[in-house]
Design a protein that fits this description.
The chain is of the alpha/beta class. It is built from 10 helices and 9 strands. The longest helix has 20 residues, at about 285-300. Bound molecules: phosphoric acid mono(formamide)ester.
Length: about 300
């Protein structure tokens, strides 16, 4: 599989075969990480983060360092020349003259696409506003695949802020190519999935509901999401909607014994701490898988050792 030199901007940029190949590579890295300790030696990753991140930035940095490469970048745009008014295009041209591959997060939808047109090096979208977050989706699909073996016949409940949640948008779009998947979208009316995402799965079985408790017994995977405070136009709406769903141990009594509870994290109140020790809570394992799939992705886009 040749992914060398490619960008990853949107979840459909990778074919099903390419994603499956990355999952297999991530599985091999998980099994024998020592075999991959030097494969990116001499390569430099730039992390370009205009918006806050813990997992995505640090897992990309850890991934590159564990592959023997090195990392430069910024996580506070105020410390870069962005503060002097430099454009995304000029910033990415600058970074491309120093690094071999770049990862970018930006609060504006479409920013990664604009940057990729100027980059000349592989560019990975680490989240563009409320639009897409494709490497979170690779993380999510890898986690389900490692546990369930395949995606055939599974029912996925996506719950919370489906309007602004870029991880939910990416997940749903990526699954649009897997015909054996059924979706139940669980959200308040104000936070329903946008039309452009719903259109992607119009050929699949899906329903939109408001109640999590009623939907829970049907689910094989429950994908919880945070209400995205930073995307709201007024605080009143956020306060009214922020605790729409709070999953706790008591609510799980009617759930399947092999349910997988996923969350891209960070969480606020939507999953209570008393769920963390339930064997169905997969979100911390999911977070760790993010580093392994990013190792596989960096290797593939750099054409290294594959
Ligand atoms: N899941 C995710 O994108 O987490 P961060 O915002 O911490 O990177």
């Amino acid at each position: 599989m040749d992914l060398q030199g490619r960008n990853l901007i949107a979840p459909l940029d990778l074919s099903v075969a390419e994603m499956e190949w990355l999952f297999d590579l991530a599985g091999r890295i998980i099994a024998r990480p020592e075999d991959y300790a030097d494969v990116c030696k001499g390569k430099l990753l730039a992390t370009v983060f205009y918006e806050a991140s813990t997992r995505t930035r640090l897992s990309f940095e850890a991934a590159m360092l564990r592959l023997g490469g090195q990392v430069i970048g910024f996580s506070e745009p105020q410390s870069s020349s962005v503060i002097k008014g430099e454009s995304i295009s000029d910033t990415i041209r600058t970074i491309a003259s120093y690094a071999d591959i770049a990862v970018m997060r930006h609060p504006k939808e479409g920013a990664a696409l604009v940057a990729a047109r100027q980059s000349g090096i592989p560019l990975i979208n680490a989240g563009d506003g409320g639009h897409f977050h494709p490497t979170q989706t690779l993380t999510d699909l890898l986690t389900i695949r490692l546990e369930k073996g395949s995606f055939d016949g599974i029912t996925i409940g996506v719950c919370g802020d489906l309007k602004f949640g870029r991880t939910a948008h990416s997940l749903v779009c990526a699954f649009s190519r897997y015909s054996g998947v059924r979706f139940i979208m669980i959200s308040p009316d104000e936070l329903r999935i946008p039309e452009y995402v719903r259109d992607e799965i119009s050929h699949l079985e899906f329903e939109e509901v408001r109640d999590l408790t009623d939907a829970l017994p049907q689910l094989d995977v429950l994908y919880m999401t945070r209400v995205q405070k930073e995307r709201f136009f007024n605080e009143e709406d956020y306060i009214r909607l922020k605790d729409s769903y709070i999953l706790n141990a008591a609510k799980l009594k009617n759930a399947k014994p092999d349910l997988m509870i996923l969350h891209p994290l960070p969480r606020v109140n939507e999953i209570a701490a008393d769920v963390d020790d339930d064997p169905r809570a997969f979100y911390f394992r999911q977070m760790r898988n993010g580093m392994y799939i990013r190792m596989a992705l960096l290797m593939a886009l750099l054409g290294k050792g594959v």
